[in-house]
Structure formats: C-alpha cells, structure tokens
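FAQ
Q: What does a multi-component entry look like?
A: The components come first, one per line:
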Amino acid sequence: MRVIGSLDGKSNVCNRILDRSEGDPERSGGCGQCLQPAVQPCLNVEEIRMPTRLKWVALVASTPLLVTACQDAGSDGTASGESPANAPVATTECASKGELTMWERSGGNKQMVDQLVAAWNAKNPDCAIKLTYIPHTEMVGKIAQGIASGEVPDLMGMDLIYAPQFEKAQQLVDLTDRISSWPELETASQGHKTVATMNNRLYGVPLYADVSALFYNKDLFTKAGLDPNKPPTSLAEMREYADKITALGGDVKGYYLPGNCAGCNIFTVGPLMWASGAKIEAAGPGDEPLVGDGVKQVLQFTRDMVKAGNVHPGDRTENGETFHLQFGSGKVGMMGTGNFNITLARQQNPSMKFGIALLPGMTAGSSASFIGGDLVVVPKGSKRVDDAVNVMKFLLSDDVQVEVYAKALNLTTRSDMVDNKYFKAEPLVQDVAKALDVGRTPYTTSFFEQINSPQGPWLKMLQRAYYTNDNLDTVIADAKEAMKSIADQG
Amino acid sequence: MHRSRRDRFIGIAYLTPALVFVLAFTAYPLGRMIWISLNNWSLITPPRYVGLANYQRAFSDHQFWVSLIFTLKYTALITPALIVGGYLLALLTAPNLRLRRYTRTVVFIPVVIGLGVSSLLWYWLFSTDFGLVNRILMDLGLIHEPVLWLGVDADRSNLAISISVIWKVIGFGMVLFVGAIQAIPTEITEASMVDGASYWQRVLRVTLPLTLRTILLVTLVSVIGSLLAFDQFYIMTAGQPQNETATSVFYVYLNSFPYLKLGYGAALSTILAVTILAVTVLQLLLTRRSHS
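Then the predicted structure of the entire assembly, as tokens:
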C-alpha cells in the first residue's frame, strides 16, 4: 500500500495538515500552497510501500515537522513557493513534474500564445502547460471568482492594464526576489514592467506586446496625389491628407474612428492626446484626469474629421468586433491600429501596399503609442510558483524571443531582440517596433471603469465629441468629474 | 392526538425535500444577496461592512434611474406587442388543421433558441455594413442609405431589439393562448354562432373572457421577463449610446462583475427585486379586481 496514493493526494494531505495548523484561512491557504519544501518530502516517498498502521504512525509523527515548516515558511505572509530563500535558481525547464495550468484571455493574440505554449510543451513535456482561454470581456470577473473560491491556475496571462488592480489587492505572487536580477528584464518592455510593479515590488513579466501606430494605405496616397513615403507627422497634416483621400470618392474615406469601442479608442486616439502633451486617466484618488490642452485639441480634430466626412458613417457602430478588419478593406486612407494588423491586412488584401508611422500629435514630429498586451503573472494560491517562474525565464530567453516571437512576426518583448533576421526581412515590423520607444501604458487601479468600459466616461466623452455639437469644455468637464469620482472610490 | 402529531410529522416529511430546495436555492441566496448588499466587496479583497451606504448611493445614482426608466420603457413597448401579437397568432392557428399546425410550429421554433444566440443573429442582421435588414430595405427602395440600427439612437435601438425579442418570444404566448382557446367548450362557441354572433363578436364576448387567466399569466411572465432583460442588450448595444440602452440588470451586471463592486450590485439587485415584486402584486390585484 502506498503512503499516499497519488501526487495530488499527497499534496492535499500535506495541505490539510497545514491548514488546520494555521487557523487563519488566508494564511493557511497560502501556507498550504507555499510549502513546496515541506510538501516535497511527501512527494519523494510516493513509491514507498508500508503497512497501513505504519502509514498513520508516520503521518502523525511527521505532522509537527510539517506544521513547523509551514509556520516558518509562512511567517512573512507570503504564499508558498514565494519564499525567496527556498526558491531554486530559475531555468527554462521544469522545476517539478506534472501538468501546469494556465489561463489566458481570448483574442487576436491567441495564435501567438498557442505557439509560445507549444514551444514550452515541446521542450518540457513533463510539465506541459494546459492552457485555458477565457473570453476577453470576462477575464477580470473570472479571475476574481477564481480568487474568491480558491480555484486559481498555476500561472496566467493578464491584460497588463488590469495588473495594478490585482497587485493592489495583493492577489499576485511577489516575484521581486526571484526575477528582478535577471539580465533579460533590463531590456523587457518598459510599459509592461511599469504596470507589473507596485511599491517597488515586481509581479510579472511580459507575455506579449501590442503597440499602436498609424497605418496608411500607400495605394490611396498615390491616387490622391500624396507621397506614399511621407506619412503625416502632425494632426494638421493628417487632416489635410484625409481630406484629399476622401475626395477620391466612392466608399473611400481618409480616416477611421471606431465610434463605439472604448478600448480601440484608448489604443489609437489616446496616443494622439499623449503626443499632444495631455494626460488621460486619473492614476488614483485625488489625481486629476484629462489634463492639458491636447485633450481638447484632439477632440476638436476628431470632431472636424467626422464633420468633414472623412470618416464612414457606419464606423459609429464599431464596437471592436470588426475593428481589425477595417484597414485591410483597402477603403481607409489612414487608421490608428496595432502591430497585429500587419499580418491580417496582408491576408485580407495581399495586393494592397501600406506603410506604418507613429501616431502624431499637434506639433510636427511629436508622437506616442499605447503599449498594450499581456503579462504573465502568478496568482496567490498557485501551487507551482517555481515552474511558473521558469516559464517566465523561458519566454524571455533569446531563443524564444527570436525563434517564436520574431519568427511569427510578433513583437519581441525585449527591445534588444528587435534586431533579428526575421524583422530584417520585414521592414513593417521594424517600423511598428519603433512605437515601443515612444509608447506608454496607463497606470491606474480602475482602468476598466474609467477607460475601457463601453459604459465608462472615456467613451461617452469621445462620442459626444465625435457626434454631437456639445461644447467641448463641457464634454471634458463632465468626463473629468466622472473619472475623478471613479478614481476616488478606489 | 398521537395520531394527529404523527400525521403532521408525515406531512412535514413529505414537504421536507421541497422546503430544503426552496431554502437552498431561494431563501439562502436571497439572504446572502442582502448581506452582500450591506458590504463593499470586490471579490479580490475581503468584504467591508458599510450598512445601508450602497442603498443610499443607488438612490442618488443618475445612471441607475436612467436604466430603470429605460427598462420600464422597454417593458411598456414589448409587453403589448407580445400579448396582442401572440393572441392574434393564436386565433389564427388555434384550429387543428395541417397548415395551421405547421404555422404554429414555425412561429414556435425561435422559442427553443437561446436568447443569446438569437440576439447575436439579429445583431448581424441589423449590422450597418453587412446586415440583411438594411439590404432588403434598400432593395425595396424604402431607404437610400444604411440605417444605423443599434447603439446610435436609443429609441431606434429599442425598436430593433424589441423586434428581435418579439420574433424570439411571441411563439411562447401563442402556444399558451392556443391551449386556452382550444379548451373553450365548442358548445359555447356554437351557441353564440346560433345566436348570430359574428367572428369578432365571438372573439370579444366569448373567447377573450374565457381565456383571461391565460392572458394574465402571459402578461405576468412577459412583464417579469422584460424587467429582467439583459442578454439582448448586452449583446446588441452594450448599453450604447451613452448608456441610454443599459437596462437595470445590465447595470447590476456591470457593477457586480466588470467593475467588481459586488456589494453595490447586490443593493441594485435587491431594489430591482422589490420593484418587480411590487409590479407583480399590483398587476395581480388589478386583475383580481377586474375578474371579480
């Protein structure tokens, strides 16, 4: 007879003992999971057989040891596996055997995440990742429910803008002492690192990066008498070029504005404001949102674009469902979109020639970009922190950066990996990668409510600016009040 | 005496499964919801007791009232359409002839489709660029450019969503009405015919009064269903434009899950539940009075 029937069974027994010893549900849950060193001896005796009576004697005898170990490891309040003193050196291989569970949001980057996971699984079949996709719009709620019920994966991909919310709630494993000294992190996407950090503690590494840029249709530029190699460098030039392209007639429009999509607009219109010197979101209670002349200037610019007929009327209903298909239609002269659109546009319209420039601001030469994407984080309660850290090490490794990210023409998450053979063969990726240098990521614990929600003040402000004649000062003041109120509620 | 106590015990024993079910799936969740409404809870942090603060906040929340009024407006629009439409269809298809049975089946089919699926279907049918609705209207020469059905104008969105829901739900009322109409003894109908009543006189003086209870049932189901509308608005407009088509339940969902304000969401739910209860009681009282 086995001491403990299975690997999972043994872990559970250990955890139960530890949980009883602690009393505090939060502490005991964390301790039970964190005590990999304490659990480990149990794992090693999996194959040892002994009589039932001896099993119980051994179990009872080992209880004080386990309890002591639990109290020691959990004394700093960290979850299991977090204890840096006991943490093994990170590698790109398995730290232990058994399937790793991972959650990731569904969306346009699924193909790339699948490739990354396939690369890990090919190298580490003993601790293969079992990936579960969760609908993008349900990700926050799903993670929250998982945390509340204690049913969390070993690691997860998280939309980077939501990371501060979970860091603040102390629901992610603090990885500072395990990973902050990695040389790979020095060149990792700054936007990702910013939102992965709270109070100088680091909670994750980049999984993938999305950056926004201005895509322009060279064929339409040529037809409109514009130089296809000279994209606009200011909002005034954008307006001028859009007028000329719209004048071509038919279904062709000079510009594109997704009228019903908050996320698309922070991704593509937000940078126009940043490049014009404005600040958008309230970082926290008491912070002032929508600061700077750039907010009003960009709202006026977009309103003028709509009124001039440079935007297709149907764009008003765009809620993000078909956003990624618009540029590839060949009927849009210029459009703010993301690096993911390079491949999509090629697939949709192989003969279309297009270029990529940085999203400009009011002043010629100013530019900005939204760095979006996902982080890999470890939720509190993960039973496989060591393995999760190794997955992070793997994702940041030179080989994966070039042979998985770059090979599939996805942005590398390390800036020193941009200079690779695959990007050299594809100038458009090099162009879009320049956005990483001017990009930023909003940092707030209430990003969804302030900005990303279809019912939030950000989209309401934009819609009033685009489609009504309301006074822009009033529009901005209303949005400012609503955003402040949300931020003040914490 | 002894026997009476034993009988009572047996009666309670018979009732126990139902009681347990009601306690587990109605009373406990309701109590839990009320408890949550007295707390601020984000799911990722421990709940914090705030008393009635969430209720106070709800009554001063402009969007909550916008949502509630829109929900009542939607209910007022769709309920008569479902009742009158369903009843007319029932009158048309009540006789058990082959073609009428076939018509009943066709009208009823959408009822078995999920509301989410049908909403998605209609979302694309109403699409500005790809939708069949605009295409047909343009081909018929009724419009010259595509209409922006969803998410731009609240009334137009309400109309479009109501059309989709009527298509989906009208068969349910129709089937109940058909059952009620077929249950009317033929002697009564024949007697009124002998008395020289016309078709519409028979409908108004015989059929309608004898199917009043079913009409009440369908009205009640329709009103409650409309007050709880969520899927169709979540999928087809997501509350747009500017939250004008956000229904009460949609607003509850928004606060509870995406915004992670479970306490506030529970308070809104409680207020909505009380509102529905009040509307239902009022409806029952009015009907009972008219019936007596």
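Q: Is there any commentary attached?
A: Sometimes. For this entry: Chain A has three domains: 7-73, 100-208+373-422, 211-371+440-488.
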